[in-house]
Amino acid sequence: MTTAPLPYRITATGIETADCVSMEVTPADRPLARFSPGRFAMMYAFGVGEVPISVSAIHGQRLVHTVRAVGAVTRALCRLRVGDFVGLRGPYGTGWQLDVEDRPDILLIAGGIGIAPLRPVVHQVLGRPGAFGSLQVLVGARAPRDLLYTGEFARWRRAGARVEVTVDRPDPGWRGSVGVVTDLLDRCETDWTRATAMVCGPEAMIRHTARALVDRGLPPPRIQTSLERNMRCGVGHCGHCQLGPLLLCRDGPVVGYDRALIPLATRER
Predict the structure, then answer these.
(1) Do residue 66 and residue 192 come from a single domain?
(2) For 146, which of 60, 89, 119, 141 could close a Cys bridge (C-beta 3.0–4.6 Å)?
(3) Range of the domain at 196
C-alpha cells in the first residue's frame, strides 16, 4: 500500500451506460500491492482531484475500474482515453470474504453500479468450480439503460451462475422483471441458514435487502455489505467517511451486517 499515487496507463476503455465508463489500467512503472475483490483505490485525475473507486475486475497487475460521471473528478476520469494516465494509490479497505470450508451458496445482490464491486466475486467463484455451492446473482437498476455488464450475463449463466435481473421503470422493449431487487429473493434456491450474501448498492437498498435476508433466516454475520461515504484520505485520518464507530476507508467498505446494523439504523432516524 502506498500513500502517494503511482502512474497507471489506460490500456482499454468501454462505455457501459450513458454515464458509466470502464477503464483498464496498467502500471507505468511500479505496481501497487495486489488488490482483492471489494477493496478500492483512490483514483487521481491529474490536475482535478481524486475519488475512491472499487475494482470491477482484476487481471494480475491490470485493474479495471468502472466510473460513473457524477462530479468534477469522475467526469474528468470518464473523458480520458487509451494512452492517458491516472494516478492510483491503495489498495485500501476491506474486501469480500469467501470462505470455502462449508461450500456455502453465494448470493450476490446489486443495485445500480453496485454490481461493479461484486463483479470480481463472480469471476472468482466461477473460476473455482466445485469450491462453492450455487452462485446466484440478483441485479436491480432504475431502467434497462442503467444495467451494467449485460453482455456478460449469458456467459455467467453458461458457467453455472443463476442471474436474475429487474428494473424499476421498464422501457417498451423490456421483457424482464419489473420491481425492486428484493422481489427476486423469492426465486432463490438456497439454504438460508448457511448461505453467504454480499450486498452492494444505494444505502436504502442495502438496508431493505439485509432486513429481507434476515427475515428469511440468514444470520447477520453471513451478510456482507459494501458501504459508501465521502472518502478523502483512504487511511482513516480525516474522518470524512465515519459511519457511527466505523471509518469506512479503514473498517470497510465491506462490513458484516452484524456490525453495520446499528450505524445504518441510527443514520436512518
Answers:
(1) no
(2) 141
(3) 106-268
Res. 236 pLDDT band, cuts 50 70 90: low
User: Which helix (H) or strand (E) is 242 found in, with range?
Assistant: strand 242-243
> Which value, in Å, is the radius of gyration of the alpha carbons in the chain?
18
- Closest by Cα among 187, 189, 192 to 166: 187
Residue showing cell 476491506: 94
CB pairs under 8 A, 24+ apart, for 152-160?
152/119, 156/122, 156/126, 159/126, 160/126, 160/129, 160/135
Q: How many residues does the chain have?
A: 269
Q: What are 126-176's pLDDT values in tens digits?
A: 999 888 889 999 999 999 999 999 999 999 999 999 999 999 999 998 999
Kindly state whether residues 69 and 122 are assigned to the same domain.
no
Domain CATH number, residue 17? 2.40.30.10
Residue 99, in any domain of the structure: no
- Which cell goes with 68? 460513473
pTM comes to 0.92
With contact defined as beta carbons under 8 Å apart, do 19 and 232 qualify?
A: no
